[in-house]
């Protein structure tokens, strides 16, 4: 029987508020068994870029990462946010170890090919080194991944944090029974964006396609959910989308993805 | 018999110049056996601090780290420099893993006590977790430490990189035969600061005290050498101060510290 592994991804909104981040990390530290945390960037990168007089460039809701902005996200994601999260987990006796995909060559990516749009130093994940990650897990370390990867050719790459989480889940599902949870500020996927309690409790692929066609699911939620269905197909045991309360109460209302 | 372990610390001047850093990392990647790299900060932190309109505060040649400057050094040392060094080592097939002292609780420090001067968030090292570091080494990973530590109470701390190297060496000497090398832009400790070839080849503690009294060794070299003699007393097998050529030619003229 495979050992259980929890992969939890936290988004920008949980990170931006110091108090909710601190509460989350306290709850996270109490999780038993094997755990991996993946974190996004939050507003801090945009804030630092602005202070450095860099204009953030967005195309269709995606950040364009030129060389200067890559420096900023590397500083903020891999430095400031990752190390502060690790230090707070250590305070709670969770033996966290902060990683980018370059560290231990854990996540290798390719610079996104320019078709219509040049996203700059954006990385699409090619492979995950399951062996190195499991060495860390089996030595009671809790990997904390930021959304920076590399191409094994000396180039760091900015990578979508949701994708980092689902690719880690897919790869690690070969040797662990993986539960993947996306934690954000809402209780789950909402049927009505203006009603916080209109949570869709179960979504399968056919259901997802309908919701997408009807425009009920849109924007940033689309790639997140599509990654999830790929991960389920790759053998990830369960995927949940929930708010921070889910960590301490598995029976709380939230969205579960099913095949 | 103990296994050999090389700990090499590179200073600001090797890091500041992209070409010499790249050459160094190529040579470093060819080292056999167990290796740890420690890097300082270089000019980049001051550059970023200036761009963010933070005035660097120095007292007696030491940086005063207020909360804003701690953010900057965490971004630059643990993020930008550490991850770029790791990515370049990975390119050369050296399986590097970047760490701050918070990661895996590898280096615990205490905030420096305020006596005459308040250095802010400056850390004095209390302990090194030899077990976690040796798990990494024994799994063919090469730890790359930046000069950020933590107090195990959620606080990151800015720590002198020379001290990080000597404290790692002292602690790891319990289980490894440690060779510690400080690599910088000069060929060794110079008798005459204006003569690049006036290298003092061997320095023992008595000799060091004379050189200090005569003012031949001064400024930043003093704490570096004092740390070294502590490390030798703690069982570190050998300590060298050399330029980057020493990596590929152990017979090149340089300074060796002896008890």
Strand content of chain A: 15-25%
Query: Helical proportion of chain A?
Result: 25-40%
Quick check: average pLDDT of chain A?
94
Q: In terms of per-residue confidence, which ranges of chain A show pLDDT below 50 for 5 or more consecutive residues?
A: none
CATH topology descriptor of chain A: Carbamate kinase
Shape of chain A: globular
User: Any idea of the CATH class of chain A?
Assistant: Alpha Beta
Number of strand segments of chain A: 14
| Main sheet makeup of chain A | 8 strands, mixed
- Largest interface between protein chains, with number of residues from each side: A-B, 41 and 41 residues
Q: Do you know the CATH architecture of chain A?
A: 3-Layer(aba) Sandwich
Distance, first to last CA of chain A: 22 Å
Strand order of the largest sheet of chain A: 5-8-2-1-11-13-14-12
User: Oligomeric status of the shown chains?
Assistant: homodimer
Q: How would you classify the helix and strand content of chain A by structural class?
A: alpha/beta
User: Rg of chain A, please?
Assistant: 18 Å
How many helix segments of chain A? 8
Order of helices and strands of chain A: EHHEHEEHEEEHEEEHEEHHEE
> Structurally, how many domains make up the residues of chain A?
1
Q: CATH-wise, what's the superfamily of chain A? A: Acetylglutamate kinase-like
Function (chains A, B): Catalyzes the ATP-dependent phosphorylation of N-acetyl-L-glutamate.
Pathway (chains A, B): Amino-acid biosynthesis; L-arginine biosynthesis; N(2)-acetyl-L-ornithine from L-glutamate: step 2/4
Enzyme class (chains A, B): transferase
Main location (chains A, B): cytoplasm
């Amino acid at each position: 029987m495979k050992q259980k592994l929890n992969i939890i991804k936290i988004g920008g909104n949980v990170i931006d508020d110091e108090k909710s981040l601190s509460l989350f990390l306290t709850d996270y530290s109490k999780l038993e068994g094997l755990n991996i945390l993946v974190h996004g960037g939050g507003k801090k990168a945009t804030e630092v870029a602005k202070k450095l007089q860099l204009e953030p460039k967005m195309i269709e809701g995606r950040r364009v990462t030129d060389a200067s902005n890559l420096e900023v996200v590397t500083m903020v994601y891999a430095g400031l946010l990752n190390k502060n999260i690790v230090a707070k987990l250590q305070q709670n006796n969770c033996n966290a170890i902060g990683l980018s995909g370059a560290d231990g060559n854990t996540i290798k990516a390719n610079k996104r090919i320019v078709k219509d749009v040049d996203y700059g130093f954006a990385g699409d994940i090619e492979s995950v080194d399951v062996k190195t990650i499991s060495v860390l897990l089996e030595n009671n370390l809790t990997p904390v991944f930021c959304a920076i990867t590399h191409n094994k050719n000396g180039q760091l790459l900015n990578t979508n944090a949701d994708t980092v989480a689902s690719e880690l889940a897919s790869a690690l599902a070969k040797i662990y029974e993986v539960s993947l949870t996306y934690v954000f500020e809402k209780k789950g996927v909402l049927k009505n964006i203006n009603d916080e309690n209109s949570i869709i409790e179960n979504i399968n692929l056919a259901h997802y396609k309908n919701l997408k066609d009807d425009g009920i699911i849109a924007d940033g939620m689309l790639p997140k959910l599509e990654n999830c269905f790929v991960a389920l197909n790759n053998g990830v045991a369960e995927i949940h989308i929930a708010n921070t309360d889910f960590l301490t109460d598995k029976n709380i209302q939230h969205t579960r993805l099913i095949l």
